[in-house]
């Protein structure tokens, strides 16, 4: 195997690598074998560019009859191929030999090993670069800036924002950050750093001293949003609005016209009310309020607004330096039409109890001292989800809505439901 191939232009293949190929070290064994294979000029055999010539050639005998004779070029090619094949087989460990059993040419063995073990070996010897670089880097940054995160630094993988409450402490905050980075031998790219700026972009949001607001470039898809043409698209739209209602005040109220279209079914008609709601929804999302972070011991103002359709709350702060109200947190809950709400009349219960006490005190000659405490607020709770309650009422008591169309729909769809311990199941 180590002798040269006379007349073929191929040098000695050489001895097999010292390390046998296993399921985990394909790249290492390949790095050992490639210089030897290139030196023997047999890479064409392995990569398929050096194809086998015809085994037989057409010729004529003395009587000028066509006959087939062996091709010397094929004999030379097959000798080279089998020597490289033997080299590869001697490089394999016992557990790998079974995967190439039955193959007869070097190119077949080479391509099979690549297909089976190349990607597997890469994922095992380079896990940091291929699998968990983000998690590993974030863990390192949290350890590096552990004393600053939440105080004057926010970090997400390789994005670092240093926040300074006062201009006089800017240098101190920067120095503290640089010292922590230097301990972990981390360097910054000067072309991507900005210092002393009033605002900047982080994770697609615009961050400034006033607060956090959306980047206009990131919400252009809302401007070009087309109106829904299918019932499924309306359901998707209302679902997205429900998800955003946690962050935008009274957003659920703006989506009520879409809920009315859902009741029309597949043959809904897009009307002017829905068009106005769509434009109002775009305008609200494109001009979101700026939320600010509350300061320690800063008084917060809670505003609550309630209508028959929507309950909204907003937490505000008033900054003396600007004299304006800034939102801290907003919450909005849409109430579908027909929801039954019940008011827990605690005052009535307390009033009756107080009357009984006064009667007892009058009988004993004692006097009642009026309380100067704050008035107790009413408590409101939602008793039942409306669409479920309609089916529960029909299944248990055979009671139907007054609307005949709605009644027929309840009868038709109730066959798919059952009630267990007062709860509706499909």
Structure in words:
Helices cover 42% and strands 17% of the residues. The protein has helices at 26-39, 43-47, 72-90, 94-97, 106-125, 127-130, 133-144, 170-183, 220-223, 231-244, 251-254, 256-263, 272-286, 346-364, 386-397, 404-413, and strands at 56-60, 66-70, 153-156, 159-162, 199-202, 205-208, 212-214, 301-306, 310-319, 324-334, 340-344, 379-384, 418-420, 423-425. The strands form six sheets. It has a three-stranded antiparallel β-sheet with strand order 5-6-7, with no helix packed on it. Strands 8-9-10 form a three-stranded antiparallel β-sheet. The protein has a two-stranded antiparallel sheet with strand order 1-2. Strand 3 (153-156) and strand 4 form a beta hairpin. Helix 3 (72-90) runs parallel beside helix 5 and helix 10 runs antiparallel to helix 12. The radius of gyration is 39 Å and the shape is extended.
Secondary-structure class: alpha+beta
| Rg, Cα atoms, Å | 39 Å
Name the poorly predicted regions: 1-11, 121-128, 323-327, 335-348, 362-385
How much strand? 15-25%
Task: Report the principal-axis shape.
Answer: extended
Please state how the strands of the largest beta sheet are arranged side by side. Answer: 5-6-7
Q: Write down how many β-strands occur, each being a DSSP E stretch of 2 or more residues.
A: 14
Q: Number of helix segments?
A: 16
SSE ordering: HHEEHHHHHEEHEEEHHHHHEEEEHEHHEE
Fraction of residues in helix: 40-55%
Largest sheet: 3 strands, antiparallel
Protein name: Reverse transcriptase domain-containing protein
InterPro entries: DNA/RNA_pol_sf, Rev_trsase/Diguanyl_cyclase, RT_dom, Viral_Replic_Matur_Polypro
Pfam family, one: RVT_1
